[in-house]
Amino acid sequence: MDLIAVEEGRVIIGGIDHTAASTEAGSEDRGLRRGRRPWTRWAVERLLLLAEQPLTQVELAAVLRVTQQSVSHVLRGHRFASRTDRGWVIGQRAEALDGVLAEYPGPGGVSTYWYGLDPVVRQAEAAATWCAESNVGCVLTGDVAADVYAPWRLPAVAGLYSGGLLDFTAAGFTPATDAEYTLVVTVPQDPTVWRTAAAAAQPTARVDPAAVDAVPPVRVDPIIALRDVLASAGPDAAEAGEHLRRAILDGTWRG
After folding, report:
1. More confident of the two residues 254 and 255
2. What pTM was estimated for this model as a whole?
């Protein structure tokens, strides 16, 4: 039996339920699960941490497609954000980044697990191609994204955020469980994933809201990639995460 239950966020293929709650989110954010999560605040913080030049409230609102009032609410009284004559910046960047990583629970959503035989990067490319052929947007995350931003360890698992639930058997994958898989695909709850990914994909240091949609992003922004690397399995996850963390703070993640 094959079944996709959109309301419940479940996918059953061949009689096997291979759907799980948010990737690696665990139960550490139970306090945040009740009530509305501050997706806009976390996104504003990510944009300011990654920006090499100040950003105005108007620019931040345009990139995230939210109101200027919501951005103003985020920045008002923010302990790390300050206003300059050219826009807003984040001070104490290392402390601010660690604060985001400690609080942000990940994009959330529903995950499906798959198994493939090709090298992980090739699996990620095949999954992304299948999403494109199905007219479903997607961005790579975790080790595969970190391998571009700050190469360190060989990716062991392909991670991907998708705009919808898909059956990847047609792309050469076999349904798997969260105990053994090579590809995890998540439909995120966080609506800002796509916008910060698009901003990070811009080739210049200056974030241009008018050009954010010019090229579809391929991977999540470096901070979400870092969060997912730190939540991944493997004894060297912390070391790989620190390598990407340093690249973010030094501004070398752009290559």
Report:
1. 254
2. 0.86
